[in-house]
Amino acid sequence: MRARGWAGIGLAVLIGAALLRTFVRIVPADAPEPSRPAAAEAGALLIPVEGVPPSALSDTFAQARASGARAHDAIDIMAARGRAVLAAADGRIEKLFWSEEGGRTIYERSPDGRRIYYYAHLDGYAPGLAEGQAVRRGQRIATVGSTGNADPAAPHLHFAVHELRPGEPWHGGRAINPYPLLAKPR
């Protein structure tokens, strides 16, 4: 009876060790923490202006514009003229466009086609940037400026995110607030 009891305990220890090895990774105390890119967080976007920390962002999404006729539907990221504008996520350049309000703009479509990232008031495009070009998160795509209806004394990036239905054009969609997607703790 005693031998059978020890055999049961031994079997339980072996099964426990196998399960522990399956569910627990043992690493030395001085091993570096594995890095996890911010993109792994659901919906997280890279702040699209080089060197701007989350603490420098303000949620201006619902602010009324000067005319009071419409909401902002974007956030403004203040930065020096010429500062690098980075792709907030992987995607494809859908449209390079000039408008009276936005000035020099970029429309970038997400790989699944469900979002448009809109960058406006740009001073210039990155050399070689073209419609249809694939871009990677963090890639330099433009520089901050004050084109369009932006105050020349306050260069900034006007950044918007639009959710699209299948087949909806680059200029369509429903505006969603980019602030929580950018200011998320990293």
Structure description:
A hairpin with a 5-residue loop joins β4 (103-109) and β5 (115-125). It contains 2 helices and 9 strands, in the order αβββββββββα. 27% of the residues are buried. Strands 1, 2, 3, 4, 5, 6, 7, 8 and 9 form a 9-stranded antiparallel β-sheet that branches. The protein has helices at residues 2-23, 179-182, and strands spanning 75-78, 84-86, 91-99, 103-109, 115-125, 134-135, 140-144, 156-163, 174-176. The longest helix is centred in the first third of the chain and has 22 residues, at 2-23. By secondary structure, the protein is α+β, with helices and mostly antiparallel strands. Helix content is 14%, strand content 28%. It holds the Pfam family Peptidase_M23. Its cofactor is Zn(2+). Residues 71-177 form the M23ase beta-sheet core domain.
Characteristics:
single chain, 186 residues, alpha+beta, nine-stranded antiparallel β-sheet, 2 helices, 14% helix, elongated
Concise synopsis of the structure shown:
With 186 residues, this protein is of the alpha+beta class. It has helices at 2-23, 179-182, and strands spanning 75-78, 84-86, 91-99, 103-109, 115-125, 134-135, 140-144, 156-163, 174-176.
Draw up the topology in text.
Elements: H1 2-23, E1 75-78, E2 84-86, E3 91-99, E4 103-109, E5 115-125, E6 134-135, E7 140-144, E8 156-163, E9 174-176, H2 179-182
Antiparallel strand pairs: 1-8, 2-7, 3-4, 3-6, 4-5, 5-7, 5-8, 8-9
Largest sheet geometry? 9 strands, antiparallel
- Give the overall silhouette: elongated
Order of helices and strands: HEEEEEEEEEH
Output the structural class.
alpha+beta
Given as residue ranges, the uncertain stretches (5+ residues, pLDDT < 50) are 18-43
Strand content: 25-35%
Number of helical regions: 2
| Helix percentage | 10-25%
Distance separating the two termini = 58 Å
Could you give the count of β-strands? 9
Mean pLDDT: 79
Q: What Rg, in angstroms, do the CA atoms define?
A: 24 Å
Oligomer: single chain
